[in-house]
Amino acid sequence: MESNSNKADLKVVIVGGVAGGASCAARLRRLAENAEIIMVERGPYVSYANCGLPYHVGGVIPRESSLLVADERTFRSLFEIDVRTLCEAVSISPQEKTVELRNVATGELTIESYDKLVLSPGATPIRPPMPGIDLPGVFKVRTVPDVKEIKDWLEGHDPFSSGMHTYTGYQTVVPARRAVVVGGGFIGLEMAENLKHLGLEVTLIQRGPHVMGPMDPEMARYVERHMERHGVHLVLDDDVTGFQRTDGGPLEVLTKSGQKFPADIAVLGIGVRPENWLAKDAGLAIGDRGGIRVDEQMRTSDPDIFAVGDAIEVKDYITGEWTHIPLAGPANRQGRIAADVIAGRDSSFRGTQGTSIIGLFGAAAAWTGVNEKTLLRLGDSDYEKIYLYPNSHAGYYPGAKYLAMKIIFRKSDGRLLGVQAVGQDGVDKRIDAFAMAIQLGSTIYDLEEAELCYAPQFGSAKSPVNFAGMVAADVLRGDMPLSHWNSDVPRYLLDVRHPQELAVEHAPGAVNIPLDELRERLDELPRDREIDVICRSGQRAYYATRILLQNGFKARILAGGMMSRENLIADTNQAR
Ligand SMILES: Cc1cc2nc3c(=O)[nH]c(=O)nc-3n(C[C@H](O)[C@H](O)[C@H](O)COP(=O)(O)OP(=O)(O)OC[C@H]3O[C@@H](n4cnc5c(N)ncnc54)[C@H](O)[C@@H]3O)c2cc1C
């Protein structure tokens, strides 16, 4: 089919002209020069950078045009793709192999035939039918026009330009504008940061017990504290129930606990759901999470219709479960795979591991693979976890920042299952390395051997990735027996830090013998009990544990030491 196919031989209609749709269209042209490709997009733009939208609101990306990665003209001139913006696909007839299109401006309906149809309609922001949700000042963030509305609103409600400030006789008093962000996922947190950049007072309300759902609670705590340090007021475990505006007063955001938050603007970031109505009406199979069901080659239940991106369900690479992970990377890859398959190539999607990153006030949180919450939900106990706090680069080179990392791996065979990391430097490159390792089915023993680049300003001779492998391998080889803060087993706690450090933070009931005195004071320790050893991050506890084990004691290291304790206690309230 590739180079010798005639235009009439293959006609492909693509619905949705952004991440999945546009990458499919461009790839298909590169493989099938003679195919007729039509790409329809309901909105005014194709191939725009949704991921940059919050930063356009915050002024970090000042020009709207920077968000438009490629326009209609580029698609036409470079790829000879018939791009139709403001054109919505409204129904599909799989029997006739036609799709009905509506001109959004005129309402005119036309019918287009296809040999292959690709659906990439994305996901819709969830907008529950709660009182006041349609009031002026309540916004969603999905498209370029959405953020234009937000920017216009903020400019229109600028206290200087709107004359809302009062003159006291001495100075102009400018009331701080207040924003309420609903939802603590990616979009909510990014919007909170950007509204803060604009000088607004920002309150973020999150339904669940912690922000960033894909992270485990104790790792999300780092994100929460960082947000709070930068002035974002977090309200956790509360549900927004509605919005109201009293006469002449500000918008108020109401919550289940009975609180009222006055707001000059409210932004919804409570998640997305697959835009599935077109597929559903056409009788295509839809999964339990509302996504279009596809096989590994992106084919729907109709072999001539493909679907990609946020609209589909995919298999979790680790658990094998169906899941919905709306991310740009998978959408782009799936678009490319659909094009390959349509052009007769044998490509397939490996499933998703949810690799993600978010930047917040100069720090980053990122993860890949499965989290512990999921393993617990699945009743999977064949895993172990460690917490590490390595430097982002050699400690002797200026500017090193510590990384907080959680590594989850199989107890039985050492397979790496998931990693979460938070820090101000070097988070992305570590998570990318772990992500590749997971995709290649690597074990923690492979991480020990990974050969990674090093110079002092970039990393350490023993990179955090190697370090993770070495510590995890020590655990599995029995060199470093492990216990956890939230284990129920009564413990004898030995703290090997210096007494000065205990003044800052200490674990109640812990016996203190500093590491450098341990060899001389072994007779103070019990030989008939497990001894759980702590220090600040785990390194000195490891040295101590090795001394104790080699002297016949039953010793274990308490994972993550004092640095993990605070978060785990906040999380489980059962650390002992
Ligand atoms: C504010 C924001 C920030 C984000 N940040 C990140 C990030 O940092 N990293 C990351 O990985 N992901 C991020 N994402 C998610 C990422 O943008 C999506 O995963 C990706 O764009 C999905 O691609 P898609 O092609 O499935 O859908 P989309 O890119 O949403 O494109 C779907 C398009 O289809 C059009 N459409 C829908 N129905 C029809 C129809 N019936 N007819 C015609 N056209 C139709 C829509 O108008 C839309 O333009 C972000 C998303 C948003 C909204």
Write a short abstract of this structure.
The chain is built from 17 helices and 32 strands.
Distinctive features:
alpha/beta; five-stranded parallel β-sheet; binds flavin-adenine dinucleotide; FAD/NAD(P)-binding domain; 32 strands; disordered N terminus
* CATH domain class name of the largest domain: Alpha Beta
Mean pLDDT: 93
Strand order of the largest sheet: 3-2-1-7-20
pLDDT under 50 segments (min length 5)?
1-7, 160-166, 571-576
Structure description:
With 576 residues, the chain is α/β, with parallel strands linked by helices. It has four domains: 11-123 and 273-342, FAD/NAD(P)-binding domain; 138-160 and 177-270, FAD/NAD(P)-binding domain, CATH 3.50.50; 362-476, FAD/NAD(P)-binding domain, CATH 3.50.50; 482-575, 3-Layer(aba) Sandwich (Oxidized Rhodanese, domain 1), CATH 3.40.250. It has a five-stranded parallel beta sheet. α1 (19-31) runs parallel beside α9 and α7 (217-229) crosses α17. The radius of gyration is 27 Å and the shape is globular. Mean pLDDT is 93; it is low at 1-7, 160-166 and 571-576. The structure holds flavin-adenine dinucleotide. Residues 15-16, 18-21, 40-43, 50-51, 53-54, 88-89, 120-122, 141-142, 186-187, 275, 278, 309-311, 326-329, 331 line the site of flavin-adenine dinucleotide (FAD).
